[in-house]
Every structure is written in structure tokens, then in C-alpha cells.
Amino acid sequence: MNKKDDKLRISILGSTGSIGTQALEVVDDLKGVKDIEVTGICGGSNIRLLEQQARKYRPRLAAVADEKKAGELKTLLADTATKVLAGEDGLIAVATEPSARMVLSSIVGFAGLVPTMHAIEQGKDIALANKETLVTAGSIFMDAIKEHGVRLLPVDSEHSAIFQSMQGGRRGEVKKILLTASGGPFFGMTEGELKNVKKADALKHPNWSMGAKITIDSATMMNKGLEVIEAKWLFGVGIDDVEVVVHRESIIHSMVEFCDKSIIAQLSLPSMKHPIQYAFTYPERMPSPDKEVDFGELGSMTFFRPDYENFRCLSLAKEAGLAGGTVPTVMNAANEVAVGMFLRGEIGFLDIADMVGRAMDEIKPIKEPTLEEIIETDREVREICQHF
Ligand code: NAD
Ligand code: MG
């Protein structure tokens, strides 16, 4: 490849999701400013959208996790040059497409782990939205990043903010990370009130429009727990060096406090297109069509301490992060199962934390797991949780 060629060739894992579709909007926004080619797209099952994306962005590869749907997409795209692939092998092929320089990891949940690991092994830079991968396999993931000398750029808004704020000092001068949380739709409620909340209420996030799983994680505050562990791996800090600060307006996306007690923060209106664009253009900044913060209109910003008692998922995640080994893997898998059950109306809101806590109590952890042991633990937890 020509060294001077700074075209961004990117494969998008989970191109049909909330992050994936916004990433393609960023590709459109950057037209004329940055040369970008979409080399691969993939998703779980939405073949109509994949067809539209393939026709517009002309990727070399398109993959669908669902094998039967892949056959249908193949027929739909028969008149194009895009090759259609199926199943996990298809996702891996998109993640390792030879011309891709960067892979946006935005499949939701554990399903994103194996394709992302393959991308790293093939020397692709990673723009990481999928926090579950780092939570479940942080040590192995970070070792692979180092071993293959690739860049890891955070897409989660808080971690992008921390990454940007870190540029205000040296690593050794960092005192702590202040991870902001909106508090979600149930901020201020007690367990007694949370007992009867419904799926429709949990899906109404005050500031962000996101996929269903992360929206429920935001309502239980598990999302913030996952993000504490994500920050630990991304920035090489201890779990106790990450302080969660509830900030209802989601304007400050996170902050870093340095040893002289100076705090550097990143602010912008809540839009995932900001962190996605920064991951795509880093180390440069490029113009964005997004609206800017109008402080006069905003008026005030509010801050609170998190409620670890009523939002037990946050405490459980911190506990898992401190324990290490496969404990975060168990916590993450149980949470994925529980959130799925809650979304299907099979369990109540507070049962999510119960299921996570029970799985963490009952499953014997492995201290320094291999990738295979992590995959096996994830499978085992999913099976056990079905019988709770
Ligand atoms: P989403 O549900 O909107 O999209 C998920 C994508 O993954 C879709 O393309 C779907 O087809 C695909 N997918 C799901 N299961 C799959 C499987 N088994 N195999 C292959 N593809 C599969 O989710 P989202 O909100 O875009 O979130 C994606 C990831 O980004 C999550 O890990 C989430 O925590 C993280 N994230 C999202 C946001 C946000 O604003 N949406 C913010 C920060 C981080
Ligand atoms: Mg976030």
C-alpha cells in the first residue's frame, strides 16, 4: 500500500445498528474533507438496510450473521460487485478484509468479540464502540492491541471524552477519571419504585437514542458499570481511580483530574457522531455539521452522586471489575441474558440485578483466562441463567 495514501478504508461491524448507521452518516458528513472508503459492512439480520447500504457505499464485502438471511441478501445484491457472506466466518471476513485499515467494532454484546480479535490480529486499527468486548476479555484484548501495534480509538462518548481530556497532561500526572452518567430514565427512584417499571419506560432515555440493549443498561446503570471497567482497560487505571458523577444534561462527556487538581473536560451536545468522527479523523479534527453548545440556552448543568444501593448493577459491575479474571465475563453474560429476558417481558426490572448477582455468586471464576476459557465461560453462564 502507498504510504502517503491517507484514505480511510474502514469495515463496519454492526453497520445496521444505532452506531453503525450514525457512522455511515459521518462518512457522508466528511465527504469532500476526508477520503473514506467503506470496505465491509455486516449485521445480524436486517438485510433490507444492508442492501441499501451496499448499493450506496459499494463495500467489497457484506455479511449477515443469520445464514438464511445471507442467502436472501445474496439474491438482492446479485447485480452488484459486493460479495455476500454468512455467519461468524462472514463477520470475520468483513473484520479482516485485506484493504481495510480500520474496523469499527459496533456489534452489540459478546458477539462482537471474536471478529474484533481477528481484526486486531490482522493489524487493523480499532474504533471501539462495543464495550462488552473489553469488559469480558480486557486483558487479552489489550495484550493483542499491544502485540500487533494497532491503534485503539474509543467511540463510547465518555471514553472519547477521557481520551481527549488526557491530551491535557501526561499519563503520570493523572489523578483520577471523572466518568459522567446521565442517570437514565429512573434517576432518583428507589428499589420500591423500580420494582414495577415497564419495558416502555426503560426504553425512554432522556438524552440519547440508542439500541435496545444499551438503553436498558442505561436504565439499570449497568452501562456505567461496564464503562468503569472499559475505562480501566483503555486508560490503564484502577477501578477505584474512576469516579462516577451523575450529570443529567449529558453535555460534559467525562473529565480527567490531574495531580494539580486541574480538571480537563470535553463538552458537546449529546451526539454519538462526535466521538465516531473523532475516531475516524484522529489525530486531526475536522468540521462537523452538528449543532454547538449554546450555554445561554442551556442555563445550568447539574451534578449528583450515583445511587449504588438502588441501582445494584452499578455496584455489581464495580465488584466484578475489582475481582477481575472471568468475573466480569460472568457479569456481562448474565446481564446480556437478563436484558434479553426483560425485553421479551419474561422478567421484571429488578430481576436483572438479581440474575447478575446470582451468576457472580454461583460460577467459580478463573483467574487468568485464555480466550477459549472466556468463550466457554460466556456459554456456560448463558445456559445456567436460563434455569435460574
Ligand atoms: P444496536 O442494537 O442498535 O445495533 C447492533 C448491531 O449489531 C446491529 O447492526 C445488529 O445487526 C448487530 N448484531 C447484533 N447481534 C449480532 C450478532 N449476533 N452477530 C452479528 N451482528 C449482530 O446497538 P447499538 O446501540 O448500535 O450499540 C452497539 C454497541 O455500541 C454496543 O456494544 C453498545 O454498548 C455500544 N455503544 C452504543 C452507543 C449508542 O449510542 N448506541 C453508545 C456507546 C456505545
Ligand atoms: Mg457511553
UniProtKB/TrEMBL annotation:
A GO molecular-function descriptor: NADPH binding
Alphabetically ordered keywords of this record: Isoprene biosynthesis, Magnesium, Manganese, Metal-binding, NADP, Oxidoreductase
Keyword NADP: yes
Presence of the UniProt keyword NADP in the record: yes
EC number from the UniProt entry: 1.1.1.267
Annotated DXP reductoisomerase C-terminal domain residues: 267-383
Positions of NADPH binding: T16, G17, S18, I19, G44, N46, N130, E132, G211
Pfam families: DXP_redisom_C, DXP_reductoisom, DXPR_C
Pathway in which this enzyme or protein is active: Isoprenoid biosynthesis; isopentenyl diphosphate biosynthesis via DXP pathway; isopentenyl diphosphate from 1-deoxy-D-xylulose 5-phosphate: step 1/6
Binding site for Mn(2+): D156, E158, E227
Uppermost EC category: oxidoreductase
Source organism superkingdom: Bacteria
Domain annotation 1-deoxy-D-xylulose 5-phosphate reductoisomerase N-terminal: ranges: 10-138
Known catalytic reactions: 2-C-methyl-D-erythritol 4-phosphate + NADP(+) = 1-deoxy-D-xylulose 5-phosphate + NADPH + H(+)
Positions annotated to bind 1-deoxy-D-xylulose 5-phosphate: K131, S157, E158, S182, H205, S218, N223, K224, E227
Alphabetical GO biological process terms: isopentenyl diphosphate biosynthetic process, methylerythritol 4-phosphate pathway involved in terpenoid biosynthetic process
Domain 1-deoxy-D-xylulose 5-phosphate reductoisomerase C-terminal positions: 152-235
Cofactor(s) this protein requires: Mg(2+); Mn(2+)
HAMAP family hit by this protein: DXP_reductoisom
Entry similarity comment: Belongs to the DXR family.
Cited function: Catalyzes the NADPH-dependent rearrangement and reduction of 1-deoxy-D-xylulose-5-phosphate (DXP) to 2-C-methyl-D-erythritol 4-phosphate (MEP).
Protein's name according to its UniProt entry: 1-deoxy-D-xylulose 5-phosphate reductoisomerase
Organism, as annotated: Candidatus Monoglobus merdigallinarum
